Amino acid sequence: MKRTTHFLMCAVVLLFSTVLLAQSTITGTVVEAGTDIPLPGANVIEKGTSNGVTSNFDGNFTITTKASSGEIVISYIGYNSKTISFSGDLALGNVILESSQVGLEEIQIIASVAVDRKTPVAVSTVKAQEIELKLGTQEFPEILKSTPGVYATKAGGGYGDGRINLRGFNSENVAVMINGIPVNDMENGRVYWSNWAGLGDVTSTMQVQRGLGAAKIAVPSIGGTINIVTKTTDAEEGGNVITSIGNDGYFKYGLTYSTGLMDSGFAATVSAAKTEGDGYVDGTEFSGVSYFVNISKEINDAHTLSFSAFGAKQRHGQRQNMHLIETYRNAESGRKFNADWGYKNGQVTFQEDNFYNKPQMSLNHYWNLNDNTSINTSAYASFGSGGGGGTAGDYKFGLDATTGQGDYRIGAFGPIDFDKIVDENIAAGANGAETYLRASRNDHNWYGVLSTLKTNLADDLVLLAGLDYRYYKGIHFSEVTDLLGAQFALDDGNVNNPNAALQVGDKRDYYNDGLVGWLGAFGQLEYDVNANFNTFISLAASNTSYKRVDYFNYLDSDPLQETDRYNFFGFSAKGGANYRIDGYHNVFANLGYFEKAPGFDSVFLNFTNDNINADAPNQKISSFELGYGYRSEKLSGNINLYHTRWNDRTETASFQQPDGTRAAANILGVNAIHQGIELDFIYRACESFSLTGMVSLGDWRWDSNVTDVDILDEDQNVVDTVNLFIKDLHVADAAQTTMALGANYKFSEDTRLIIDYNYYDNLYAEFDPSDRGTAGAPDAWKMPAYGLFDIAMTHGFSFGSFDATLTARMNNVFDTEYISDAQDGSGSNSDTALVYYGFGRTFSIGAKLNF
What value does the mean pLDDT take over residues 37-65? Predict the structure, then answer.
C-alpha cells in the first residue's frame, strides 16, 4: 500500500512538472505605430484557447501560456491584429500595432499628438469608444468635463452653443485643432461649436494638452490645446447604422460605410447623420445634418494621397439673453425659460437663432522619402456661410422680471406674439416696418497649407520643421430675413444708398470684410538622451496681417473704404524634458514664452476704418509646469503644478468726443496669473472594475491695478485718463475648483456600466475688467457650488450575422438645479446677476448595428 501511495505521489509530481515545463512566459509592450503611444487594454490571447490577458496602463503585458509553443494574438479596437509565434519563454519588447485607418499615423504627426510618459506636457486622451459612450445628448465639449482644468457648459442651451474654458482661459485663448489644422476664428480667436455639431461621430482621438501643449506651429494657446483627430478611412470593408432617441424629442440616425483598402491602394469612407429635436430649453428647436467623406490612395510605398471633407449644416433656436434668478423662479417653465421666441401664424418663430454650414476640406500628401525622412503636407479650405438671427427696428420684446408681463407676450412669461407685430406693420403701410427680423451674417473663405518635415538626424535626435500659411476673408453684414407683414424696412446704414427701402435678403446696417493673413514657420528638436530621458526645444514665429474694407460707412469714392494692411509679429519658444525614473515613476518639466498678436477688433476700433490702433501691443505669456506620473499594473496617476503669467491682455478704451471725433487708449499692464495644481488617476481594482478621478485647484487672479492711462485723440493729445482697480480680483467665468470621480464596471466583455460625478466650486460671474474703475471695487458674485451625477450603460450582442450595441445614458441623474453661467450685476450679488441655469435630468438611448 505504501509503495502504491508513493508511486501515485511521484506520478502527480511528474505530471505537474510536465505541465510547468510545457508552459511559456511571454512579455511585451503594445504600442501604436508611428507614435509609440502605449495601448492599455489590448487583448493578448493564446490562439486556440480561452487563456488571455490585457495590457496595463503602460501597454505592458505578461501571459503564461498553456503550451510550450504556439501562437498568441494581440488585438486592439481600431488597430490591425498581430499574430506572433512562440516556443518557450519570449520577451517581445515593443509590439507595434498599425491603425486600421489609412493615413492615421501621418495625421497624428501633423496634429502633434503627445505621447504618454515621453512628451513633457500635461495631457488627457479620449478615444472614439469613450466619446461614443459618453456623448449622448451632451454638447461635444462636455465630453471633456472630467478632465483637470476644464470647465464646459451648454451656455444658453441651444444645439451646438456649448463653451469650454481651460485653466481659466476661454476659447479665444485655447487652440482647437482638427487634424492639426487650427479652427479658431482668425479675427477674434473664438470657436463656435455649432459649426462642428457632427464632430462626435467622426472623431478618432481627442487630446487635451494643457498649458504649452505639444503643438509645434505658432498657435496662440495660453490655456492649452484641444487636439481632435478625425477618422480617416478603414482598412477593412464594413460600416454601421446608428439611431438614438432622447428627451424633448431628440432623434438621430446615420450611416457609415467603408470600402476597405483595395488591392489598387484605394479606400473610401462616407458617413452622414441627421439630428433633430425640440431642445431642453423653451424655443430651441433644432435640426442638423452632419457629413464626412475620406478618400485615400496609396500610390506606392513612398506616396499616399488622402482627401477628406466634413461639416454640419444646422439651424437652431437660441436663448441669447440671460435673466435674473427671480425671473426663472417666477416663470412657469422655470430653468427652461427662454424669452427669445414666439409664434407667428401658429408656427414657432425665433427672435434669436443660429444657422451655419462650414464644410472643411483638406488634401493630404504623405511622402516617405526614406526610412528616416518624411514630409506630410495638408492643403485645406473652409467656406462658412450663416450667422445669427435677431430683431431690428423698435424693440418690443421686453418683459417684467417679476410678473412676466409684456406688451407683446402671450400670457405671463409667455412667448412673443409676432402676429400682433405683423398686424401693426400691415397697418403702418407705406411707413415701412416698425419691427422686423434680421440676421447678422459672418460668412468666410479660409485657405491654408500646413507642411511638416520629420527627419531622424541620428538614432536619438529628431528634427521636425515646417511652414504654416493661412488666408482668411471674413464677410460681415446684416440682412433682412422677415419683414413681419411690412411692405419694406427703411435703413440708412449705407452712405452709398441712404434711406433705402429694403426687402428680404437685402443688406442693412453694416457690410464689411475682414482680411487676415498668416505666415508662420516652426522647428522642433527632440533628443532622446536614452530610453528614459527625453527632451525637446521648439521655436516658432509668425506674421499676422489685418486689413479692413467697409462698404457702408464710406463712399465708394472714399480712399478710407479700404485700409492699408497692418502687420503684427508673434513668436514662441518652449522646451521641456521628461525623465522615467523607473518602470513606475516619471517626472517632467516645461517652460515657454510667447507673444500673441492682438485681435482684429483691437486694431480697428469701433468697427471703423478711420480709428486704427496700429500700435496695438502684443499679449505676452510666460508659463512653466512641473509634473509627476506614476504607472503600475493597477494604479496610474499624474500630478501637475502650473504657473502662467498673462501680461498686457488686449484691453482698449474708446469713446466719442463732443465734436464727433474718436479718442482711444491702449491699456497696458492688464495682467493675470493663472496657477494651480491638478491630480488625476485611474485605479484598476480588477479586470472588471476601475475607478477614475481628478482634482483641479486653481488660483486665477488679476495681478495689478492699472491707473492714469492716457486716452489720446486722433492728434495724439491727452483728453482723459482711465483706471482699472482689479488687483487680486478673481478671473471669472470658469470654476477654479473642479473634482470628478468615476466608476467603470464590466459585467462581461460586452456589457459595461459607468457612473460619473463632477463637482464645481469657486465660480465667479463674468465681468469686464474695464468696469472696475473705482478703488475698492468688489470681486464678482460667487455662484453656488454644485455637483452632478451621470450614468451610462452599454451592451453588445449578436443580431443575426451582425454585431450590435445598445447604449443608454442619463445626465444629471438627480435633477440638480444649478447655475452654470452668469454675468455680474451692480453690487455683485445674486439679486442683480444675469444667469443661465444648467439642464435638469436628460437621457438618450442609442443603437448601433455593425456590418
Answer: 84
Residues spanned by the domain of 220: 102-228
Q: Is 171 helix (H, G, I), strand (E, B) or coil?
A: helix
Residues 386 and 297 in one domain: yes
Number of structural domains (the chain) is 3
Phi/psi at 201 (5° precision): -75, -20
* Cβ 512 vs Cβ 600: under 8 Å: no
Domain boundary among the residues 65, 97, 129 is at 97
Residue type at position 719: V
Contact between 31 and 38 under an 8 Å Cβ cutoff? The reply is yes
Q: Give the tens place of pLDDT for each residue, 128-153.
A: 888 888 888 899 899 999 999 999 99
| CATH number for position 21 | 2.60.40.10
Residue 202's CATH number: 2.170.130.10
Residue 16 banded pLDDT, cuts 50, 70, 90: very low
Determine the Cα–Cα distance for residues 784 and 786; give it in Å rounded to an integer.
6
Q: Which residues contact 176 (CB under 8 A, 6 or more apart)?
A: 182, 183, 184, 191, 225, 226, 228
Grid cell at residue 582: 523607473
For residues 321 and 352, what is the distance between their CA atoms, to the nearest angstrom?
A: 9
What is the total residue count of the chain?
A: 851
Cα–Cα distance measured from residue 207 to residue 830, given in angstroms and rounded to the nearest whole number: 36
CB 811 within 8 A of CB 767: no
Distance CA 396, CA 384 (A): 32
Q: What pLDDT does residue 20 have?
A: 46
Q: Which residue has the cell 473642479?
A: 738
Res 271 pLDDT > 50: yes
How do residues 815-838 score in pLDDT, each as one tens digit?
Answer: 999 999 999 999 999 999 999 999
Regarding predicted confidence, which is higher, 115 or 618?
618
- Regarding whether 44 and 170 lie in a shared domain, the answer is no
Which pairing describes strands 507-530 and 500-502: parallel, antiparallel, or unpaired? unpaired
Alpha-carbon distance of 133 to 773, in angstroms, equals: 48
If one counts every other C-beta atom within 10 angstroms of the C-beta of residue 849, the result is 15
719 contacts: CB under 8 Å, gap ≥ 6:
657, 663, 711, 712, 713
Are 474 and 442 in contact by the 8 Å Cβ rule? The answer is yes
HSE-CB at 415 with a 13 A cutoff on CA atoms is: 19
- Residue 584 clears pLDDT 60, i.e. is over it: yes
793-813 pLDDT per residue, tens? 999 998 888 899 999 999 999
What does the DSSP 8-state code read for residue 607? G
Residues 691, 682: Cα–Cα separation, whole Å: 6
Per-residue pLDDT band for 14 (boundaries 50, 70, 90) equals very low
Pairing of strands 662-666, 60-64: unpaired
Same domain for 213 and 322, yes or no, is no
Q: Which residues contact 673 (CB under 8 A, 6 or more apart)?
A: 643, 644, 645, 646, 699, 700, 701, 703
Collect all residues with Cβ–Cβ distance below 8 Å to 753 and sequence separation of at least 6: 743, 744, 745, 747, 791, 792, 793
